[in-house]
Amino acid sequence: MTWFENVNKIQYEGPKSKNPLAFKFYNPEEQINGQSMEEFLRFGIAYWHTFTADLSDPFGAGTALRNWDKYDGMDRAKARVEAAFEFFDKIGAKYFCFHDVDIAPEGDSLRESNKNQDTIVALIKDYMKDSDVKLLWNTANNFTNPRFVHGAASSNNADVFAYSAAKVKKQLEIGKELGGENYVFWGGREGYETLLNTDLGLEQDNLARFFQMAVDYAKEIDFGAQFLIEPKPKEPTTHQYDFDSQSAHAFLLKYGLQDHFKLNIEANHATLAGHTFEHELRYARVNGILGSVDANQGDPLLGWDTDEFPADIYSTTLAMYEIIKNGGLGSGGLNFDAKVRRGSFEQEDLFYAHIAGMDHFAVGYKVASQLVEDKVFENIIDDRYASYKEGIGKDIVEGKADFKSLEEYALNLKEIKNKSGRLEVIKATINQYLLNAYAE
Ligand code: XUL
Ligand code: CO
């Protein structure tokens, strides 16, 4: 049985290829800095968008044509596993990610849901044995079911806190069973709509208690995955607690959780927070908490999370710059938390979309590597902050200055000379690198 009978294994054909079912820029074997593209980029497939979602939106029903939809319930869940592993192999992705409810339907009780999970996890484990595909991360969906109407770990209802804990416990066990390299917490409904009925202090304390219990349980079962918090500023709640990387960091520091978590940075979440993707990556990187990436992009004309496949090579270049400077993503990867548009409902669109996303990150990687090799930004920064390498600047960074010595210095200053920031030429240089990377 094959689920994608019109598609063969996707090959690299180079920038001139007109074959929509071939990579133009992503060449898995190409070596950059002594590592293959495949090893460094660690692409992941998001199970929910690619195998579970039906492309419905708040105004319209699902449009997706998927040949596994001829089945129902557990049969469909099993068909999806088969289709997924065929897809991973054909697209050449080495990682995948899922929520509990993506892989198996919920039952009428938690017990039944867990049983459904066990059946599908055993099947996934079998498929993993015959392939080199690994679990980048799994997570618990503690936001879709009506029981999470007021939140999960930050719900006002302690029964919901308990239920949420049970779901995460199960996923930690499954992560261990499948050798998951990371475990993700996206606070889908961990936030609030209005302060008029919210105890913000208790909700945040409870969220921290929940994270601590997860840390303790992972230790107890010897599950060594990297824990990741995925910040998002809003949607579904008006005020999400893990608003952006800086607020997630403050939260971790406040509750003493900083040694157990890194961040999973998503491009569209960054822009929803009013940041660039590279800002979020940079903040996480300089604070030592850049763990993984959800690769997608938003629509600048729409104010919500559209989860589009990455197409903006300027953005993928600046993102890859951060990732290279981070020394890679360690156990993390580039997970395509991206969905084909509602109008792209044919099954082959899944291939076109992932090929495009992988190509665009490959371009970004190649161009960013060149920028790093030529020290383009490093030279700019060195020069721009040169005043801290000698004289009074050196005293400041070495802790040898105080207000009195600074006042004395300032009183004797004859003139203050600033230098141009040269933003226009910097942007032109980046474009030059982008255009020249594949020029003959
Ligand atoms: C939602 C989102 C999630 C997380 C995992 O915006 O990004 O899919 O990645 O729960
Ligand atoms: Co995401």
TrEMBL record:
Major localisation: cytoplasm
Textual note on the cofactor: Binds 2 magnesium ions per subunit.
Active site: residue positions: 99, 102
Molecular-function GO terms, alphabetical: magnesium ion binding; xylose isomerase activity
Keywords for the protein's UniProt record, in alphabetical order: Carbohydrate metabolism, Cytoplasm, Isomerase, Magnesium, Metal-binding, Xylose metabolism
Cofactor(s), names only, from the UniProt record: Mg(2+)
Compartments in which it is found: Cytoplasm
Classification via PROSITE patterns: XYLOSE_ISOMERASE
Record bears the keyword Hydrolase: no
The reaction(s) this protein catalyses: alpha-D-xylose = alpha-D-xylulofuranose
One Gene Ontology cellular component: cytoplasm
Residues at which Mg(2+) 1 binds: 230, 266, 294, 337
Protein family per UniProt: Belongs to the xylose isomerase family.
Name of the protein this chain belongs to: Xylose isomerase
